[in-house]
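Study this one:
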Amino acid sequence: MCLGIPGKIVAITDAGRLMAMADVSGVKREVNVACVENGPLEGLVGQWVLIHVGFAMSVIDEEEAAKTLEALRDLGEAQETLQQMAEGARALEGTA
C-alpha cells in the first residue's frame, strides 16, 4: 500500500528540475512535480497534490485534500490508542 499525503504547491523552486515547494500541514518541503505538470509550472501554484516519497503523484481538489488530512489525523489517533493499549498489555505481562 502506498500512502499519499496532501500538500499545497506554494512555489516553483527549480523549473528546470521540475521542483516545487509544497506546504504539508504547515511543513514546507520540496517535491518533484514531473508526474502532474501539464503546462506552465506556475499553473500548479495554489493546487493541492497527493505527495508520495517526494513526488507529487496527482492533483486533487481542496475538499478531497481536507477529507484525506482528516482521515490521516484519525488514523494517527487510532495508532496512538493502539500503542497505549500495547504498552498497557506489556505492563500487565511484566507484573504477572
Remarks:
- DSSP finds one helix and five strands in the chain.
- The chain has one domain: 5-95.
